[in-house]
Amino acid sequence: MLAQLAITGLLVALFPLTIVWASKDSNKYRKLIAVTLFLTFDLIVFGAFTRLTDSGLGCPDWPGCYGQANPFQAHSEIRAAESLMPTGPVTLVKAWIEMIHRYIAMSVGVLVSSMMVIAWWRRASMRFSPRLPTALFVLVLVQGAFGKWTVTMKLQPIIVTIHLLLALCILSLLVWAWMRETPFESFALPRWLRQISSIAMIVLLLQVALGGWVSTNYAALACHDYPTCNGQLIPELDVQHAYALWRELGKTLDGDFIPHSALVTIHWVHRSFAWVVFIVLGITVALARRSPELKQLANGVGLILFCQFLSGVATIYFSWPLTIAVLHNAGAAALVLLLSMLNYRVRSSAKSIFQ
């Protein structure tokens, strides 16, 4: 079974590796990073789709599906489980969604491994040390462990949330690896842009963690209106149960069912902190737009930020439709990607002025 899974991961990775090999780019290593970055972004979005369709336990074991390499081979076990519970968590469709997610993850692992091997093999002639691709390789291994625990620990919220944050860290580091292979000219920086861009990234990652906590606790519909929450500007809050981290899905630390007020708290904190994100990222965009070299990138951050607001509100008024929810998760990943690019450009500039 493990051999079949490994072969499947290699076959899925063969297509992006072929793109790199056939590329006319003179820097094929940079092309490999770009393709890996693209596939990692897709994996994050598909991971959101997997989570939002409740397919995380579509195959209740790991790394295979009922001890098999694919749902075809486990068809009888899946159908037996589906006959007992027709809506899941195990159905044939959900099993395929979960396994496709794992296959893509394995292919990303192959690509990152290739990056590390090439970086060490060519370390004497490369501009940078192989430490970053090595760190990426280690992070991918850790991410794989959290992928396993997501299944074996039955979607425990803290495990799933960390799994999401690690994916975004990998995305950000891939951006950094790709950007440093691309030469840029130095340019003048608006005042305080170095500091505010770092703060913006920290604030964004905190908001992503809060959003992941909403999703993994199934609290997206705890408030059914906006800007009020169930008709209240500040609803009854239950912080103690809402942010008890090490607990089962849907349970309190004592093993009781989590109260609705805790779910409301999780939802309300995420939507309230969004205003902090808008202010900090808005200031970052305004400062970055003052530099011609960063204007296009800043406009992209501003556009995605505005779309995030619309998709966030739409998920409430349209009762969390799947397409909008996936787009909301994709928007968060896009913001991390663009802010990572902005932070790199700011820090790679050799010249800074204070206006």
Automatic annotation (TrEMBL):
GO BP term, pick one: heme A biosynthetic process
Pathway the protein takes part in: Porphyrin-containing compound metabolism
InterPro entries recorded: COX15/CtaA_fam, COX15/CtaA_HemeA_synthase
Topology of the protein relative to the lipid bilayer: Multi-pass membrane protein
Signal peptide (UniProt feature, chain positions): none
Transmembrane segments: 6-23, 32-52, 100-120, 132-151, 157-178, 199-220, 268-288, 300-320, 326-344
GO cellular component, one term: membrane
This protein's UniProt keywords: Cell membrane, Disulfide bond, Heme biosynthesis, Iron, Membrane, Metal-binding, Oxidoreductase, Transmembrane, Transmembrane helix
Single GO term (MF): metal ion binding
Superkingdom of source: Bacteria
One Pfam short name: COX15-CtaA
Primary subcellular site in the record, as a coarse category: membrane
Places the protein is found: Membrane
Protein name, per record: COX15/CtaA family protein
Source species: Undibacterium fentianense
